[in-house]
Amino acid sequence: MTTGTIPDASHLRTALDLAAAGVPPLPLRAGKVPFGNCRACADGACGGRPNMKIPGPCQCPTPCHAWAAATLDPHVLTSPAWAAAWRQAAAVAYHPGGAGLTVVDLDNPAAVAWARATLPATRTVPTTRGQHWIYRGVTQSANEVRPGVDLKSLMSYARWRGRGTGTMTDLPAAVRELAATKPRTVSPAQAAATAPGGGGQCPHRTPAYLERGIAMAEQRITDAQSAVHTTVYRTFLAVLAAHGRCGCLTDAHITRLFTAAQAKGETPRHCNDAWTNARTRLGL
Description:
Helices cover 39% and strands 14% of the residues.
C-alpha cells in the first residue's frame, strides 16, 4: 500500500498499529466527528445499521455509520475506497467496546478529582481538558452519567490520544452502575408517538413539501463540520416548527433525522434530548 497521496500518513499508520493490536480504529474529521454515511445509506436504505441496532463492523466500502466503521481489517483500512477519508482525516478514533474496553471520559479537573477519589487506578491518557481512564471490560455507553463524565464502550467511539500510562485494570462495578442508572433513552418510534398531532387538514397540502423539508434537514445535519450538537438541536427545532403541529410527522421521518444525527456521532440520548428540548421550546 502506497500512502504518498495521504497528506498525513501518520493517521493511517496509527490506525494500522491499533488494528494489529486488536483495537478497531476509524478516521475522524475536524471537530472529532466521524464521516457521514455513504450515499447508499444516507436514507436508511441499508436497513438497521443507520439506526445503530446492528453491531459493527459496517460492511459499506467507505467509512460509514460512525462507530460501526471501526475495523481490524488492514485491507479495508488501506483500500482505495478509504483513501479519500484518510486524506481528509484530522484524527484517529477507535471503538472501545470492540476491543473489550471502556473509556471513562473525564472532561474537566473536577471530574478527574472525582475519579481519583472514587474509582480504582487504571491506565490514564491525558486529553485537552481532562483524562481518559481506560478499563478492561465493556458496558453500555452513556453521556453525562455525572457532571463531566461520559462512558464510551459499546456502540461508541473515542479519540485515540496515545497509549497513556499506568496498568490497565478491570472495569469496576461502580462504572457499570453509572451506566445502568442513566435515564432510559427514547427511540425514534417513541418520539413519534409523542410528536404532537394537530388534527384537521394538514396545511402543507402535499407530501412533497414535507419530504423536501425532511431531506433538507438530513442534509443540514450531514453537512455540519462543527458544533454538531447545536446543529442537530436547531434542525430538530426547525422541523418541529414547520411540521410539528399538524400531525404529519411519522416514525419514519423521525427515524431519518435520528439516523442522520447518529451518523455524525450523536448518541440516542443526545437525539432524544434535542428532540424533547425543541418540543419544549415550541410549547408542543
